[in-house]
Amino acid sequence: MEELVRVPSEVRERFAVRFGAGVAGWCDELPSLVRELAGQWGLEVAAAGGGGTSRVFRCVRGGEVVWLKLTPEPPIAREEAEALRCWAAVPSVVALLAADLPAGALLLADVRPGTTLRRLGWNLPEVAALLRDLRTPAGPGADPVLRPGADSVLRPLADRVAFLLDLAERRGRPVPAAQRAAALELASGGPVGLVHGDLHPSNVLAGPDGRPVAIDPRPCWGDPDFDAVDWVLEGAADLAGLERRIAALAALVPGLSPDRLLAWCRALSALTANPLPA
């Protein structure tokens, strides 16, 4: 297990860009933290991976696959845990099994077959079903919109958007001033609901019976239309095509505003892999 839990040099470099040089100490201590949590939760570590803000370990517990996710910033884990608990009755979101929030650790259920929609492919009706699920908690008598509680640790969408714009600048992708202003204006107004915050085809897995299952939220409170941007921009060859995709998705997702979604696409196109068509 020792080799699996050690943080590779390329991951350390990526974390240093995201969290600063101080993250080196966390990387040094991570193997002992993983061993401690493995003992606490009865885990056998089988493989390691992760994204830009966490290390993720595929583990086995009682013959079942589970995922141990750790981040250098415990508030990130706290925010994700709150969102996953809000979505606990929604089968289109990965299940949270346990958490050690001071340690920045989450234990997550496995999703099978687990292929990302980036690799598998997808269509707008599938995405619409996912967006509907994210907007409305399941269960009789549930509030039709997920709203922030008085004790919520989640920040407003404007904070998330400002962070993304600043991160793009740090990574050498300048954002025009007009787009920055438009994005922050959109993020500061409009409807308020629970936003996934990082919903794209690489963060959605194929689940049981083909149901898309969202993972890795960077949640916040704000306009849920934010979560639809990547899905309508991808595959749109020109502005007319984009508008058709937006209209088609809006017809399938109650409450989604075509005008606001188009405005989000314009404002965020500098951050996406597919620039806004002309």
UniProtKB/TrEMBL annotation:
GO annotation, biological process: secondary metabolic process
MF terms (GO), sorted A to Z: phosphotransferase activity, alcohol group as acceptor
Pfam families tied to this protein: APH_6_hur (PF04655)
Highest taxon, organism lineage: Bacteria
Identification of the protein by name: Streptomycin 6-kinase
